[in-house]
């Protein structure tokens, strides 16, 4: 599991986050090194006094919140595990969002790791905990999470791997890929078709993905622009 040459340029992709934790836990279990668990600290951010909504979100509830771009409440890591940064830390050292690393040492307050897929001259880097605060104004309350800005990277979503080129991609499809363009993004991440593999594991008994098209959109366009000819949906 700590074979650096084997980990370089490889990714297991899934359409949604539902199965990521399951796959990452399975791959981590194959690593026989000692496991160290890092738990996040969470708190509500009160602005202008405590309101009723903020008061009901107890310290026991906050760790259960899964928010896009945030690390998990519990990070179970081992030396030799493959991880990915989910925040920009230091561009000069190559510590950017989406960078892959291999863990070389686990301390109580710091993670030592080695960069993968990088020509940066820095051999080892050190990762500290960061404070994460969601910026979405639609949330009924504000909270903060303090945790290491990493995630296990044996499995990840298709969106997370955009703009990267890999040697080997395995796509796990437990249900049909719905979002337009996701399948294209997943397939186009690999440089050679020999490095692309699909695992279809769902109950639909089909190896096809439906191209979801809403005819109403095209009809509205035609009516808006007074297009006289018919549009054939492919």
Automatic annotation (TrEMBL):
It comes from the Eukaryota. Pfam families: Pif1_2B_dom. Residues 61-106 form the DNA helicase Pif1-like 2B domain. GO terms for cellular component: replication fork. One of its GO terms (biological process) is DNA replication. This is DNA helicase Pif1-like 2B domain-containing protein. It comes from Arachis hypogaea. The lineage of its organism: Eukaryota, Viridiplantae, Streptophyta, Embryophyta, Tracheophyta.
């Amino acid at each position: 599991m700590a074979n650096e040459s084997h980990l370089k340029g490889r990714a297991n992709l899934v359409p949604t986050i539902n199965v990521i934790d399951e796959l990452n836990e399975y791959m981590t279990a194959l690593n026989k090194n000692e496991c160290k668990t890092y738990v996040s600290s969470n708190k509500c951010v009160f602005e202008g006094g405590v309101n009723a909504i903020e008061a009901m979100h107890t310290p026991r509830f906050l760790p259960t919140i899964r928010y896009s771009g945030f690390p998990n409440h519990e990070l179970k890591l081992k030396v030799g595990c493959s991880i990915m940064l989910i925040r920009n830390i230091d561009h000069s050292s190559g510590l950017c969002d989406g960078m892959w690393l291999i863990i070389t040492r686990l301390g109580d307050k710091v993670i030592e790791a080695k960069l993968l897929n990088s020509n940066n001259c820095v051999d080892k880097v050190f990762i500290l905990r960061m404070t994460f605060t969601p910026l979405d104004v639609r949330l009924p309350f504000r909270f903060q999470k303090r945790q290491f800005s990493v995630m296990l990277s044996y499995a990840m979503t298709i969106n997370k791997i955009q703009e990267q080129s890999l040697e080997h991609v395995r796509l796990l499809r437990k249900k049909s890929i719905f979002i337009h363009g996701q399948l294209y993004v997943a397939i186009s991440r690999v440089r050679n078709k020999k490095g692309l593999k699909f695992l279809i594991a769902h109950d639909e008994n089909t190896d096809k993905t439906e191209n979801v098209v809403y005819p109403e959109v095209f009809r509205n366009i035609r009516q808006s622009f007074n297009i006289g000819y018919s549009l054939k949906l492919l």
